[in-house]
């Protein structure tokens, strides 16, 4: 079983969600260290963020098209892997906080599993055939990247996660080199399916399929 905080229709400031994740991770780690019979449950958080740029622990400022002391939106350096990305309204962000001892002690397996969640969700929601690209982490359709993935694993407990562009305004991505990849574009579900569709209806639809795909891939009851 996995407890789910489904806030997909709410805009949550990045720093609030970041603190929340780290608090859950700390509580989970404490419960495991005290051998309390695993009283803590795996957790998944689904939400949207107010506009923000985030960088991974080893990110390079050469992928920013602005000065770090004058960013167009908030800018945070985090402990996740990966390069710079953008989060904003219309993008579904999923933060799984899982004890990989309950699944598989393999970070590469976990990254591929998160990609599989998105691939299945896009297919079931709109029959979009998404795929992986060799050498990169994330999910693409053609030459456009629809989902970015960046995670942190501490004592086999995961946090951070994935971000899927559904009805996202893609213009803020022009201020960065998304994920440090210069020769591929960023896309969204709306751009491929119906740019004129209702933001609310499309987010409602995709979020249900994303949660179902997560449940199926990780074989867990939300």
Describe the protein's architecture and organization.
The model has no long low-confidence stretch (mean pLDDT 94). The protein has 222 residues and is an alpha/beta fold. The chain is 29% helix and 28% strand.
What level of helicity do the residues show? 25-40%
**Ends distance:** 6 Å
Order of helices and strands: EHEEEEEHEEEEHH
Please, how many helices? Answer: 4
CATH topology: BirA Bifunctional Protein, domain 2
Characterize the overall form.
globular
Q: What is the highest CATH level, the class?
A: Alpha Beta
What can be said about the biggest beta sheet? 7 strands, mixed
**Regions with little confidence, pLDDT below 50 for 5+ residues:** none
Number of strands: 10
Strand-residue fraction? 25-35%
Family: Belongs to the LipB family.
InterPro entries: aa-tRNA-synth_II/BPL/LPL, BPL_LPL_catalytic, Octanoyltransferase, Octanoyltransferase_CS
GO biological process, one term: protein lipoylation
GO molecular function: lipoyl(octanoyl) transferase activity
Summary of the model, kept short:
With 222 residues, this protein is of the alpha/beta class.
Question: Any key phrases for this structure?
Answer:
single chain; alpha/beta; 222 residues; 3-stranded mixed beta sheet; BirA Bifunctional Protein, domain 2; 7-stranded mixed beta sheet; 10 strands
Q: What layout of secondary structure does this protein have?
A:
Elements: E1 2-12, H1 14-33, E2 42-49, E3 52-55, E4 74-77, E5 85-87, E6 91-97, H2 107-126, E7 139-141, E8 144-154, E9 157-165, E10 185-186, H3 189-193, H4 199-217
Parallel strand pairs: 1-2, 3-4, 8-10
Antiparallel strand pairs: 2-6, 3-5, 6-9, 7-8, 8-9
Domain BPL/LPL catalytic: 38-222
GO molecular function: lipoyl(octanoyl) transferase activity
Family: Belongs to the LipB family.
